[in-house]
Amino acid sequence: MHIAITGNIGAGKTTLATRLAEHYGWEVLYEAVEGNPYLPPFYEDMEKWAFHLQIFFLNSRFEQVLKIKKLAEDKTIIQDRSIYEDAYIFARNLYESGKFNETDYQTYRSMFNTITQAISHPELMIYLRADLPKLQRQISKRNRDFERNIDPDYLLKLNVLYEDFVNLYTHGKLLIIDVNNLNYAENEEDFQTIVDLIDKNINVGTQLEINPL
Ligand SMILES: Nc1ncnc2c1ncn2[C@@H]1O[C@H](COP(=O)(O)OP(=O)(O)OP(=O)(O)O)[C@@H](O)[C@H]1O
Predict the structure, then answer these.
(1) What is the ipTM of this complex?
(2) Which of the 8 DSSP states describes residue 171?
């Protein structure tokens, strides 16, 4: 089974993916942050590095989904961020804010459309919904150099696109979790709340039985 966690920067995807994998014995595939040569310069000058970064993420996410296709035949894989977010949220936001020019954006979208014809979709998507203060707290807690001056307006715009994305999402089952008042990194009860929700929504390892919130 393929499960993906979706959510804005700092929503807590990596922590949740790691904890769920430990709890259920799933395998996690993380996104390419460490060693991504374009992320630090991108935050310095988005217009200049938008295309490079989007191609890097698209390729790395495509590699992941091909890997997941094979692995998910006999185990459950949890993916830290889905391929859709690159195109429908990050690239779209860059385009709409004038940082991705028309030609580059059309080239990128055409590659994305080609790639999506070759992939299979997650059976379950878990969306972590978090408001700006929560995102900012978590981003400052992890203290990554290149995220230090992240513009609140950038996070707000991404959040609007995330809401659009989940409202229109039809590729598979969707579980929406409001994480504003949850601290599943440190609070066992909060983690258990999420586990209970997931248990209610899937028969782990076999079939899906979703009752959306
Ligand atoms: N397609 C993309 N375009 C631009 N930036 C991206 C893209 N995908 C990921 N990023 C950036 O990569 C970095 C890592 O992503 P993020 O921090 O969301 O992952 P994370 O550490 O898994 O988050 P979380 O706190 O939810 O675990 C962030 O700075 C994010 O903006």
Answers:
(1) 0.89
(2) S
103-153 pLDDT per residue, tens = 999 999 999 999 999 888 999 999 999 999 999 999 999 888 888 889 999
Site to probe by mutation for ligand 1, drawn from 5, 6, 9 as the one with most ligand atoms within 8 Å of Cβ, is: 9
Residues 6+ apart with CB under 8 A from 82: 4, 6, 61, 122, 125
| pTM of the model as a whole | 0.91
User: What is the DSSP annotation of 12-31?
Assistant: SHHHHHHHHHHHHTPEEE--
Query: What CATH code would you report for 2-201?
Result: 3.40.50.300
- SS3 label, residue 52: helix
Does the annotation list 139 as a binding residue? Answer: no
H or E element that contains 124 = strand 124-129
For residue 85, the ligand 1 atom closest to its alpha carbon is 1
- The answer to whether 74 is annotated as binding is no
Q: Where are the domains of the chain?
A: 2-201
Query: Which of 18, 20, 31 to mutate to test ligand 1, by most ligand atoms within 8 A of the CB atom?
Result: 31
